[in-house]
Specification:
With 216 residues, the protein is mainly alpha-helical. Among the domains are: 46 residues, SRF-like (3-Layer(aba) Sandwich); 42 residues; 53 residues. It is 68% helix and 5% strand. A two-stranded antiparallel sheet has the order 1-2. Strand 1 and strand 2 form a beta hairpin. The longest helix is centred in the C-terminal third of the chain and has 54 residues. It starts with 13 loop residues before the first helix and ends in a 14-residue tail after the last helix. 0% of the residues are buried. It is found in: Nucleus. Its main location: nucleus. This is Agamous-like MADS-box protein AGL19. It holds the Pfam family K-box. It comes from Spinacia oleracea (Spinach).
């Protein structure tokens, strides 16, 4: 018959709780004994029942094992304390070093801006001048590179605008009508010119008597 899994919570029934305590206590004492014999381990087991009754097992002596445990914990706390103190000291040294670096960087910043130069020697001022010259050279090089990029971009835009202008100009020329001076005269134009010449020869006289045909 398969037993169900025991839930890890307090057993409410008093008799069942006492039976379970007795069984598991005996099993635990047996396991402690087996561990000490099979593995040559120093084992000390102390159990207090719900009513306050003491049950214990020790492979050598309970008090001896407890003393050994307390000594070990004391040594362990001492090691941890030393490590903690050493770490704290290292943290303080690191913090002081970082504070010095920050102060040095702040002083260098002020000097590069032209402040706090009273305590500078000639060598320090020359070093500052070299740093500024180097910075200016780098800034100018970067500025010139950006200008070159912008100029190249403007050249490309100019080329595109010239192409677009040429295209629009050609389109405009193709859409204009043919000039009259270039148009070839037709037969009707020639006949009209002949009639104009004939009429000009027939009308003689003043403008008001143009309707009468008078001979001299």
């Amino acid at each position: 018959m398969v037993r169900g899994k025991t839930q890890m919570k307090r057993i409410e029934n008093d008799s069942s709780r006492q039976v379970t305590f007795s069984k598991r206590r005996n099993g635990l004492l047996k396991k402690a004994f087996e561990l000490s014999v099979l593995c040559d381990a120093e084992v000390a087991l102390i159990i207090f029942s719900p009513t306050g009754k003491l049950y214990e097992f020790a492979s050598s002596s309970t008090s001896r094992t407890i003393d050994r445990y307390q000594k070990h914990m004391k040594e362990l706390r001492g090691v941890k304390s030393k490590v903690s103190d050493r770490n704290m000291l290292q943290f303080k040294e690191d913090a002081n070093e970082l504070e010095k670096k920050l102060k040095s960087l702040e002083l260098s910043k002020r000097r590069l801006l032209g402040d706090s130069l009273e305590s500078c020697s000639i060598d320090e001022l020359q070093d500052l001048e070299k740093q500024l010259d180097k910075s200016l050279s780098t800034i100018r090089a970067k500025k010139n590179a950006l200008f070159k990029v912008q100029i190249d971009k403007l050249y490309e835009e100019e080329k595109l605008l010239l192409k677009e202008n040429a295209r629009l100009k050609e389109k405009l020329q193709n859409s204009l009508p043919v000039p009259l001076s270039v148009r070839q005269p037709t037969d009707d134009d020639q006949r009209n010119n002949v009639q104009d010449d004939v009429e000009t020869e027939l009308f003689i006289g003043l403008p008001e008597s143009r309707n009468s045909r008078c001979l001299p």
